[in-house]
Structure prediction request, 191 residues.
Amino acid sequence: MDTSALHNVPRNTGWIEVVCGCMFSGKTEELIRRLRRAQIAQQKVVVFKPKIDTRYSPEHIVSHSEQFLNAKVIEDASEILKLTGDAQVVGIDEGQFFKSNIVGVCNQLADQGKRVIVAGLDQDYKGNPFEPMPQLLAIAEYITKTLAICVVCGNPADRTQRKSDQHERVVVGAKDLYEARCRYCHKPPKE
Prediction:
């Protein structure tokens, strides 16, 4: 749930928000929107992205609609604890690209009184839960699931269809390799 819609937003405590969904559903756009609102409110914000994500910019988080924010590029979630400083709000994009230690890192930050916002894919290209996102969903106080539009039939889409024959779980790409599909139109690869 988007905390801006709540009348009873937590005070004097930290919390975790997760924005999840398939590709092209607006996850990064929503992350940027929340972080910009925090900046407008004069809160100290720091943003992180995984080194593996070089699709649009090496030093920004960038939405498919070309919105962007400066970001610190990291290889491992443990670096976030060292680089957060006195930030009140911590944004993390592409959460699915981090190891499972991101869960503990987010908990530590929230325990320190910080607002932590993580965006990422909740399912891989096969339609399976994409770790560590399920673990983050379990500990988050607020969850937003974004939907795209199925490119085949126009229904709400919550799956990511890979258009190549690559079988690695992580293959970084955008419209060249992926499209949004609904449950009915998603065709996972045959093993």
